[in-house]
Amino acid sequence: MYGLEFRPQKFGDVLGLENVKDVLRGILRAEDYDQGYIFAGSHATGKTTLGRIFARAILCPHRTEDMSPCNMCPSCKDFLAERNPAYLEIDAASQGTKENIQAIKDSLRYEILSTRKIILFDEAHDISDAGKDALLLVLERPDPNVIIIFCTTELEKMHKSLRSRCMDFSIQDPSEKLVRSKLATICSAKSLQYEGEALDDIVRSVGRHYRDAENKLRQVTFLGPVTKDNVKRAVSMYVDETAGMLLTLSNDLGRALKFSDHLLSKMNVKSIYGLVVRLLVDSVKQSKGLAFSEGRYSQILSAIWRTYGAMVFEILDYMVSRNRLGDQQMFQSDLLVMHYRFRKGLFEAKQVEMKSPDVLQPSKEVTVRKVPSISELAKLPDGKKEDAIREFKENRRKQRADERVPERVSKVWGPEVKENVEQLIHRRPVSRDEMERVLKGTRNEEKI
Prior knowledge:
Blueprint: H1 2-5, H2 18-30, E1 36-40, H3 47-59, H4 74-80, E2 87-91, H5 92-95, H6 98-110, E3 117-122, H7 129-140, E4 146-152, H8 160-163, E5 167-170, H9 176-189, H10 196-206, H11 210-221, H12 228-235, H13 239-248, H14 253-264, H15 269-287, H16 296-308, H17 312-319, H18 328-343, H19 374-377, H20 382-398, H21 405-413, H22 415-424, H23 432-440
Parallel strand pairs: 1-4, 1-5, 2-3, 3-4
């Protein structure tokens, strides 16, 4: 596995986390150690790796200039070979019971500790409550030769009293740029042919996690060179098709649904929703000056922004409110609802202007119908008035602004119309007789 083969062995190999590394170097220079340390952060971000480097550096008698372990002395070699008696690493998920912790306490009590003993608990949040209480007693009676390191993805599950007795470090997720840099380094070291955009797609598929990205990269290499097509096949990352579905949704429902059927056969629904939201967010970022790698992805983002513009925010507001991310039928029903909102003018889409015949080009241009305003309603011929008013009211309900309709109507049609509209505004559906009463039973009938 690339994650094991290319695991950092010194501070300089760890990408990012400069503030954390600087503090750890300062501790090593001063050789002023606390009893306990906590490294907390999400999975695959380097918590345990950094904890191991710190532990190895504490035990190393020949640290380098930047306080990294030399990795050449007997202590470091034994550590790397997992046989250093001064270091004990425990998987808390399987060895975190009270009995396990008590056994460790007993071994510390009867050992003659002439040098330091370091114990690292991986996934420390899985230590049982009784086990955490037992460790708390160890921390309350500090032994200068014993250091405990906790690595956890769920800091909130660690006892507050235990946390208060440790120095804790927040291991932040790496930037996507750093993850991509790690993948490029691996490709160069393994002499793998790769495309820059293919690495970008791998990173987009997994987010900001080194190990996940490394695993996906290895998966792709079994198909051949690291190209966009091979990434698409191995990782199920269909950016072009998702963009095609999004760009045709406003004006060509049939084509958008074909895209969605194809995507559903290649990706799970949650991944599709996530990719759509990512495309929308990245299009906003690019429009605000954030640079993305030149190429296909940048062109897709530009096309989305040219198509929707500021309406991206409305679409995002709708998309992120979806809670049924595992339901295929609800996914396609969301497409229908969004298309309906485009057609009703609740989303006002601008048409994309592209000459290429690929998936980014809508199959045809369709003018999105806009609901007329109240002042425009007064100028409509009698035969079109009823449907237009009904559509206007439906539009206002969906925008949750019905309470403002009577006031706006009264400005154009007078107070009597306002009174009639107030009686009808929250009733649904509006019958023909009711609408005629609004239009004909007022003093302002001649204006309409």
